## 1
Amino acid sequence: MPFHPDERAVVKERIRLDKANPNVLRNEITVIDNALTRPWTVTRSYRRERDYRWSEYVCAANNQHVVIGKEDYFLSADGLLMPVRKDQKPPDLRHFDRARQ
């Protein structure tokens, strides 16, 4: 969510178990920011799974991250390398072949 550039956003969270059903967790989030006309509030509910079985999930098939040296980049939809951190330097292109036109 884009917030105001003055960086004065306030995010309040209230996390509690539902009194009527202890297997339900309620999370009420309120955002107060100068980019909004009034405070924005949303409530999310999460149900507890008591007999949950962990299973392995391999996400390599849809992994859009590229590691070059010790730096991590994101591959955008148009095939360009994008930084994953603020002020991250671009990759050293000396290690790549020039694109053919």
## 2
Amino acid sequence: MNARNGALLCRVLAALTLSAAIASGEDPGQLPGRQVRVAAIPIGCGGEHDAKLKLALDHLETAGGQGVDIACLPEEFAGFTAEPIPGPTTLAVAEMAKKHKMYVICPIREQADEKQYNTAVLIDRQGKIIGRYRKVFVYWGEGLHVSNEGVRVFETDFGRISILTCFDLNFAELWHEADLLDAEIVFWPSAYGGGCPLNAYATAYNYYVVPVGEGNIIDSTGKTLETVEKPREHQVIATLDLDRTFIHTNFSTEKVKKLLEDHAGEVEQEQFYPMESWYLLRAVKPGVRVREICREYRIETLREYRHRSRREINQAREEGKRI
């Protein structure tokens, strides 16, 4: 078996293990790493409000029954009539979020006083609205106001997420900002599929991307996930491990070697990227977290290394010092 097939088999087994754990009532926190189940529900943008809302609620019922932690609906999925927050759409979706104790991203056309925005509303497991993202780069002809709030990151009980919307795909600075904010998953509700730029952003920044145009969920390695569940048409569910950790070889080779020796049977090297000089580590024993062990060994993640390097090199530039 080659390395690629071996990695794929491990992901399949991990997904099956998590599904079995949920079915048996086992706490997912006792599984290796930091597992989260996400659902993309690409039922299309626009349409007649009541019919689309009914369809969305039916899909959320399905996702909730599959033990999903967070589900995302498409951009303006219930039509183009603006409403306040909270309003009819967010209130109905919030009831479903509360029923199934899952987060839901509910994109609507928002009426905010005299302005209208393309807004994705984040609802928590208790059915409370805990955040919103207003589209920064509104598409030509939408007839909406553009946001001045920029990119946001939202703290959930499973990790840090950002939301970008449709035409935002074309503006790399937004995706870079999501990285600077330490987003672990970027959700992308959209009216179209998006394609390869999404894979490129996931590759460059090593976060997961969950597109909700076609439902092609993208791994933090930049690859479109092959191991997904499709409980019904226009719904894709994936199990993501937010604890999988990229580490640069710079200043860390010996420390990584010792970590793997000391924690054999608990942590393994999932893959090595020779051209990029990256390790990818993951936990294989229930309850083990790679990120926690890395801190014990004073090993920076790839993202931490990049962010620190940016700060310190820029400081040297300002001070006119040599590196």
## 3
Amino acid sequence: MKQNPVIVIGGPTASGKSATALALARYFDGEIVNADSMQIYEDLPVLTARPGPEELATAPHHLYGVLGMQDRCSAGQWRDLVQEAIRDIRGRNRLPIVVGGTGLYLRALMTGLHEMPDVPEDIRARLNLRLDEEGAPALHAELSSVDPDTAAGLNPSDGQRIVRALEIFVHTGRGLRSWQTGRIQDAPPDMRFLAVSILPPREDLYAAANERFDRMLDNGAIEEVAALLARAPAEDFPLLKAVGVPPIRAYIGEQIDRGRMTELGKRDTRRYAKRQLTWFRHQFIPQITIKTKFSECNLDQIFAEIRIFLLTD
């Protein structure tokens, strides 16, 4: 079976992934595919740093803003979506460029994913209703009684993950941890990957994160969070946990002032970037590592290495 080439670009928030992907798309006639678990939703385009009109005009983009407020996207669901997008792009003889900072998504595509059962929506809906009525600690206590191994690894206040673990147990009678140690779905046999890791110096990354959060506020991040809250999303809606949303939500609710909101938003962004840096340094195995800011990286060298990859079967 012929293996079609796919470029995968991973790295922390504000590292220059999108700019790198655009440069590659222009040079290699590529199309960009989203691998960010927040940018896949249609709400909060500013706060999740979705590509803007200029970027969208530069190259075709896929899987950005395609899910609504009632949707929930797992790594397995994204894996199905991204494989379909990649094969569609290859069918037009263009180069797929997958870019994002959600490590679980990238790992699911490149090395495979543990098989997980499809849970009926009514089970999830009932558990989410209970989450709203009873609170996460009550559901965590219930999970501890039926699946103590999984419960031990979860924060008692993390309602989204607790519901996920409970729904798996209710539907299958097996704990989530046992599923996670079971059979793995293999990586797609018709694809071969070249991984690019963007890991600029931490001080540069933090400065970029701070600057970007200010820019998001200037470009309407507060207003778009207010608009989302006005539509009364369920508390398990993933975007309510997106970086920057909790402090902006507290500011809208007059629990903190704007200065404190900005301070917390920048702090949370830096902390998220630090966690991502750690993951990509230890869990992601790239063929190319870029350790500078995008403005300082040697694109000619990167292009040369990718050309070699594309010429190799």
## 4
Amino acid sequence: MKNNNNIGLIIITVIVAAVFLFSVLSLNQSKKAPETPQQQEEPVLSDENEDDTNKLYINVFFIGQNKKGEEVYRAVKREYEPDIDGTPIEFALVSLFNGPKPDEVKFGVYSEIPVGTRLQKVLETDDAVYVDVSEHFSLGGGTDSIYKRIFQLIKTAKYNTKKPVYLLIDGEKVDVIGGDGIMLTQPLNENSLSE
């Protein structure tokens, strides 16, 4: 009888330990950053014609789906004319904040940057790029949306300049963004939103 009690006590202890371990792991998983769409580097949409070999293009990153139905960052090619459009990074960011064109939307791309967000200024110095946006950029949509819009900005900037890029909201450098207080390290890079 004493052996049966000991075995029962051991089984209960193991079950309690397993439940505790499972709850700790679940809590740690819930603290991780929301999953962001996978990156699809290859430009998938374009105004480019086969005979346009002398034209220049930049890439802007929006969000779409791959063939498996998973969200991915979709690079969209935009024709770039240096004499008209300014620097590649400035043109890329203006294009990003203007959102996808109607023919691109037909291919299923969209942007998490809130409608009404203004790109106020792109200041490019010899050693950095400063992107100043309106406060609307940090509002609405929840944490997942904020992560996606920041990654759209990071991927577009990274693809179009080798200089460090800093995000400003209404002229102030950003360390925390969104209503949930998401920490943001600068200059912007793939790890800017990591814990």
